[in-house]
Amino acid sequence: MRESEFNRLMLGEFGDAYGPMVASSHVLTDLGGRTANEALAEGVPARRVWEAVCDAFEVPESRRLGEDLPIVERPFE
Questions:
Q1: Which InterPro entries match (predicted)?
Q2: How far apart are CA 47 and CA 42, in angstroms?
Q3: pTM of structure
Q4: 7-36: per-residue pLDDT in tens?
Q5: 51 and 6 in contact (C-beta within 8 Å)?
Q6: Is the pLDDT of residue 75 over 80?
Q7: Which of 2, 4, 53, 76 is most buried, taking the most CB atoms under 10 A from its CB?
Q8: Which pairs from 53-62 meet CB under 8 Å and 24+ separation?
């Protein structure tokens, strides 16, 4: 998982205002007492950070992959 995907999942689960706040201020014990942003900055894989956030906020398994994105067709040029 890339950090951009982590950010998309955070916004999808927590919203435009609350998502960034969770990432920057909620201390996660599963990440050694770091916030999500601190863990990402220190090289923790985005997938591991997302799993820690999901566990801390009891995100159901059915929502851990995020919303389905529409398929965008790109015609060959």
A1: DUF3046
A2: 14
A3: 0.82
A4: 999 999 999 999 999 999 999 999 999 999
A5: no
A6: no
A7: 53
A8: 53/10, 53/22, 53/23, 53/26, 53/28, 55/30, 56/26, 56/28, 56/29, 56/30, 57/13, 57/14, 57/22, 59/13
> HSE-up of 60 (CA within 13 Å, CB side)?
3
Count up the domains in the chain and report the number.
1
Q: How many residues appear in the chain?
A: 77
Backbone angles phi, psi at 27, to 5 degrees: -80, 125
Specify the residue for token string 């863990």: 39
Structure tokens belonging to residue 75: 């015609």
User: Is 71 part of any domain?
Assistant: no
Torsion sign over Cα 11, 19, 24, 39: negative
